[in-house]
Amino acid sequence: MPVKPPTQLRPLVAAIAATLLPLVPAAAATPLPGKAGVYCRLTDVIESPAALNRTMNEIKAAGIDFILPYAKLTSGKVNWDSRVAPAELAGKTDLMEKVVKAAHAAGLKVYPVFCVATEGGDEKTNELLERHPSWAFVVGGRRVGYIDPGNAQARRYEMDLMVELVTQYPVDGLSLDYMRAPNRVGYTVTARDHFLKTHQVDLAELTAASSEALDTEGGKKAAATAAAKARSHPVWPAYRAWRRDQLNQFMRQLRAAVRQARPDLPLSSYCWGAHTYTGNFETCQDWKTWIAEGWLDWINPSGYRYTDEAFREAAELNRRNVPKGFPYYITIGVATSHGKLPDVAALKKQLEFSRQAQADGIIFFTWEALRRFMPEAGEAIRQWQPLSTPSTP
């Protein structure tokens, strides 16, 4: 059942985006979703009501408190009946309606995942960016599927979608992903214009150079490459700061838009982690500021590590950088592009390392990967408890 009629969406978000409204004051205490969550795709069960209900009950029985189903994908496709997205970007249009209903019936909370800045991904643009080429990042002389956070129209489109999602369905929160720049060296139209005016440097020329490998969320070198000459140029620190500030402005706007539409709706975000502040990265993802400014209610940095030492190091580093008293969840990558846990014993070790790192909660990626470890994993998840009572911001 809609919370607000869809006809009200565009005027509401347009007003917020145009005027950069300050944040509505946060509620005094935002409830956490629980101690354990799981990302889920559900495309294999969505067409069968019986299979979907059975899956929700299995997730609940495994000790999971909330699910994070994919509402907007990295491709830009949306898994709900949208009036905002172009027709070409319609995904599973009934997924959110079915999932929210089935999850709530099973006693699960729903935090849909919204992949913010991606409209096609690292290699190609989607139909939206083909229509609006000035919205896209340019890498190696060609556009890639990330929006320019400095482009007000691109930001407005993403906020329109978010407000539509959270007002059309009775979700319990919203979880962000890809709220960052691509981990590449490139430029955007707004950035190029700005730096031509302020520094007399053409970013299009600067970024067309030899390449080097960057670090990734999982600690490995990226297969993709980036311009080495550009990163050593004196203007590069200012350009990185500019991109970070544009993303922060976008985060402030979308927090205001969501809070205006659903004042008490919790907002969370996945992030790569504290190592990106000092390592060889171009993501410009300043989640420490998002926490400090009150734009998030909890955060779940990546735990995509596949040795004991690497996982513990990442978990402890993130714990040191997430302020005490702010809810910190660890995302355990059961199977990702960076690797996979070989057995349930490895999963149990990461659960214990998460507890030792004083995580307030745990999130698994994904249910489709986790379920092969049942029922043993379910017993471990049900027994898992943080070292202290989870905090409330």
DSSP strand count:
16
Q: Sheet bearing the most strands, described?
A: 8 strands, parallel, barrel
The gross shape turns out to be globular
Which blocks of ≥5 consecutive residues have pLDDT under 50?
Answer: 1-8, 10-28
Strand order of the largest sheet: 1-2-4-8-11-12-13-16
**End-to-end gap:** 29 Å
The average pLDDT is 90
Q: Helix content range of the residues, please?
A: 25-40%
The CATH homologous superfamily is named Glycosidases
User: At the third CATH level, what is the topology name?
Assistant: TIM Barrel
How much of the sequence lies in strands comes to 15-25%
Q: Using only CA atoms, what is the Rg?
A: 20 Å
Total helical elements = 14
Structural class: alpha/beta
Architecture per CATH nomenclature, i.e. the level-2 architecture: Alpha-Beta Barrel
Oligomer: single chain
Q: How many domains?
A: 1
**CATH level-1 class:** Alpha Beta
SSE pattern, N- to C-terminal: HEHEHEEEHEEHEHHEEHHEHEHEEEHEHH
Explain this structure to me?
The chain is an alpha/beta fold and 393 residues long. The strands form four sheets. Strands 1-2-4-8-11-12-13-16 form an eight-stranded parallel beta barrel, surrounded by four helices. The model is unreliable at 1-8 and 10-28 (pLDDT under 50). It is globular and about 60 Å long. The protein has one domain: TIM Barrel (Alpha-Beta Barrel). Helix 12 runs parallel beside helix 14. The protein has helices at residues 9-19, 49-61, 95-105, 127-131, 152-168, 189-199, 203-206, 228-231, 236-261, 287-292, 308-321, 344-356, 367-370, 376-383; strands spanning 36-40, 66-72, 109-110, 113-115, 118-121, 136-139, 142-147, 174-177, 211-215, 221-227, 267-271, 298-303, 329-333, 335-336, 339-340, 361-365. The longest helix is centred in the middle third of the chain and has 26 residues, at 236-261. The protein is built from 14 helices and 16 strands. Helix content is 37%, strand content 18%.
